[in-house]
């Protein structure tokens, strides 16, 4: 699982693409590999436009802009930290849910 995504990302690295579109590129990869891959994307594509479709919150936390969609509708579009500060923000709810689940997983070990 995940080999196809890694292969395509490697091809984009070799081509030195200026625009990179990732659609759940790390969905089939474990969390540690995802962290390594995200660091690689941030460093190797720092001067590129990167558009990422993601469900993992850490994947988008340091993005320039986040677009939140619910039931096929655009709900919000702003910088991640602005959305985190906005009461009632869908993105804020998702982040809080992710980290509370993450915390409870650690505590149950």
Automatic annotation (TrEMBL):
Organism superkingdom: Eukaryota
Keywords in alphabetical order, please. Answer: ATP-binding, Nucleotide-binding
Q: Which InterPro entries match?
A: ABC_transporter_C-like, P-loop_NTPase
Q: Name one GO molecular function term.
A: ATPase-coupled transmembrane transporter activity
Q: Could you state one GO cellular component term attached to this entry?
A: membrane
Give the matching Gene3D superfamilies.
P-loop containing nucleotide triphosphate hydrolases
Q: Where are the transmembrane segments?
A: none
Q: What is this protein called?
A: ABC transporter C family member 10
Give the organism, scientific name: Cajanus cajan (Pigeon pea)
């Amino acid at each position: 699982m995940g080999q196809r995504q890694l292969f395509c990302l490697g091809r984009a690295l070799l081509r030195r693409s200026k625009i990179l579109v990732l659609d759940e590129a790390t969905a089939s990869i474990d969390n540690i590999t995802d962290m390594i891959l995200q660091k690689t994307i941030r460093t190797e594509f720092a001067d590129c436009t990167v558009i990422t479709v993601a469900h993992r919150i850490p994947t988008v936390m340091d993005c320039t802009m986040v677009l939140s969609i619910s039931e096929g509708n655009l709900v919000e579009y702003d910088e991640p930290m602005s959305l985190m500060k906005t009461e009632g923000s869908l993105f804020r709810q998702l982040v809080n849910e992710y980290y509370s689940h993450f915390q409870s997983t650690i505590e149950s070990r």
